[in-house]
Amino acid sequence: MDLLRSLPLGLYLDAPQTWLHKLDSRVKLIWLLSFLTSYVFANNYWRVLLVLLLIIFTLIAKIPLRVWRQQMGWLLVLSIMVFAIISISPDGMSIDYQPRLPASEQILSPAPSTNSENKTKLPLPTNEKYKYIIFHQGPVKISRRSLSLATSLSTIVFTLIYSSNLYLLTTAPEEITSGIESLMQPLKKLHIPVTEITLTLTLSLRFIPLVLEEMQNLIRSVMTRAINWKKLGLKGGIKVWLIVMERLLENLLLRAEQIANAMTVRGFTSPNEHQVKWHELQLKPPDWLAVAVLIVFWGLRIAFGALN
């Protein structure tokens, strides 16, 4: 069991270098925030378009199949399951829907006129194609509201998870923190410790693989001991896993202490005095093109994606 391969979410893909890797981290961060915020108060057509855009970006970037198949595949299955469950669930209206027009045509017929003039009878407007209940077979009922809720929730789940994962997949942790620090520079005027925040974020991103490695080692150590879980019972099983969790916490605290000691020995006593520049942030022509496309993106969102 290899957690570093079975749980690839949030890991950086160092090779091959796609065109998404070469974009400036600040531009990619603004694109990520646009994906995460543009679906708010948007119609379902726009939310479906966001899902299609993410899939198209992945295919155009030529990310290896072995990478995005594990990530996008399970996420698509999850989104489809959410769509199916919500669409057949009650819509929450609790209303018995009746036809808009009465069943008897005599009610609609006008009273006999005493005037001798012949008046032309205008037909009442009807819309026979509209149906609130789209599908009803046995206990399965799909209404327009439940279908709208299913589309909204499933696309939001896919957009939130996959857009963040695609950003982490194509952006190194050092680039992420450098981009965030660059965008947060105006906050220094408010005496906010921007450098300390970005340094903490860098260490936390670097700590994720260490957490997965410790979990992997502990799970392997439990599996190699061939514990008979049936004899232990529920109480004994819980006790074993509590011991494992305690050992995991001890190992993580030990790793954190080792990192802190290593930084202290190397003179990292103050982030303002010991800054390390991993990347030179500079906007290139592809970055300006991405910014121009982003402006078109928000123009389409305002023009066609607003909630009616």
TrEMBL record:
Membrane topology: Multi-pass membrane protein
Record-linked InterPro entries: ABC/ECF_trnsptr_transmembrane (IPR003339)
TM ranges: 45-65, 72-90, 147-169, 190-212, 288-307
Domain of life of the organism encoding this protein: Bacteria
CDD domains: EcfT (cd16914)
One Pfam match: CbiQ
GO (cellular component) term, any one: plasma membrane
Main location: membrane
Subcellular location: Membrane
Keywords tagged on the record: Membrane, Transmembrane, Transmembrane helix
Name used for this protein in its record: Cobalt transport protein
